[in-house]
Amino acid sequence: QSGSAGSSGSSGSAGKPTGKPIKQLTIGLPGSLSNLYPGQEAGILNYYVAALVMEGLVYVDPNGITRPAVASSWTRPDAQTYVYNIRPDAKFSDGSPVTVDDVLYSFQMARDAKASPGIASYYGAVKTITQTGKNQITVKLSTPSESFEWVPSAPGALFIAPKAFWQKNKGQIGTPQALLEGTGPYRVTSFAPDSHVRLEPTGTWWGGKPPVDAIQINFIANDSARYLAEKSGAIQMSFNVPLDAVQQWQTLPGNRVLSVPDRSWAGLIFNTKVAPTSDVHVRRAIAHCIDRAAVVKELLHGQGQVATAMSTPEQFAGVYTPQQASAKLAAIPQLGFSLAQAKAELAKSSVPHGFSTTLEYPNTGPQLGTAALSLAANLKKIGITLQVKEVTISQWLANLSAPKQLLRYMWYFNTTPDPAELVSYLLASSPPNLAGYVNKQVGTLLGQASVELDAAKRATLIIEAQKAAAADLPYLPLWWGRSLTSFSDHVGVKNYSSYIFESPWASNLYSAA
Amino acid sequence: MTVPGATAGRASRAAGLYLARRVAGTVLLLAVMSVLIFSLLYAEPGDIVRNLLGTRPVNPQTMAQIRAEYHLNEPFVQQYWTWLSGAFTGNFGTSVQSGQPVAAAITSRLGLTLELVVLAFVLAVVTAIPAGVLAGVRHGRGTDRAVVGGAVLFVSAPAFALGLLMLYLFADYLNWFPVYGTGSGVTGRFDHLLLPAATLALGLGGFILKITRAAVIRELDQDYVMFARARGLRNRRVLTIVLRNASVPVMTSLGLALAYLVGSTVLVEQVFSLPGLGTLLDNAVIFKDVPVVQALTLLMAAAIALSALLVDLAYLALDPRIRYEMTAR
Amino acid sequence: MTAPTALTVTGLRVRAPQGPIVGGLDLQVQVGETHAIVGESGSGKSVSAKAMAGLLPPGLTATGALTIGTDPVPLDGAARAWHQVRGSRITLLPQDPFTSLSPRHRCGNQIGEPLRRLGRSERAAAVLAALDEVGLPARVARQYPFQLSGGMRQRVAIAAALITRPDVLIADEATTALDVTTQRDVLDLLARLQRDRQMGLILITHDLGVARGRADQVTVMYAGRTAEHGPAATVIASPAHPYTGRLLDCDPPLDVALERLPTIPGSVPRLALVGTSCTFASRCDLVTDECRTQVPPLAEVGPGHQAACLRTAEFVRDRAGPEHAGRGAAGATEPAQPAGQDGSTALLSVRDLTKSFGGTVALAGVDLDVMAGESVAVVGESGSGKTTLARIIVGLETASGGTTTLAGSARPPQIVFQDPYSALNPSLTVGTSLRDALRAGGRDRSDTEVAALLDMVGLPAAYARRRPRALSGGERQRVAIARALAPRPDLLVCDEAVSSLDVSVQAQILNLIADLRARLGLSVLFISHDLAVVRQAADRVYVLYRGRFVEHGDTSGVLASPAHEYTRLLMASAPAAHGPRPA
Amino acid sequence: MTPASSIAELEAASIAGAFAGRRRRLPVSVVLSVLLLALVAICAIAPGLVAPHADRQDILLGVTGPGTAGHLLGTDDLGRDILQLTLGGTRSAVAGPLLIALGSMLFGLAFGTTAGYLGGLLDGLIARWADLLLALPAVLLAIVVAGIVGGGYGVTVAILIVLFSPSDIRLIRGAVIEQKTQPYVESAKVLRMPAWRIMYRQILPNVMPVVIANFMLNIAYAIVAMSSLSYLGLGVGPGAPDWGRQLSDGQSILASNPAAILAPGILIVLTATAINVLGDWLFDRLNERVAAR
Ligand SMILES: Nc1ncnc2c1ncn2[C@@H]1O[C@H](COP(=O)(O)OP(=O)(O)OP(=O)(O)O)[C@@H](O)[C@H]1O
Ligand SMILES: Nc1ncnc2c1ncn2[C@@H]1O[C@H](COP(=O)(O)OP(=O)(O)OP(=O)(O)O)[C@@H](O)[C@H]1O
Ligand SMILES: [Mg+2]
Ligand SMILES: [Mg+2]
Question: For C238-244, what is the mean pLDDT?
Answer without folding.
Answer: 90
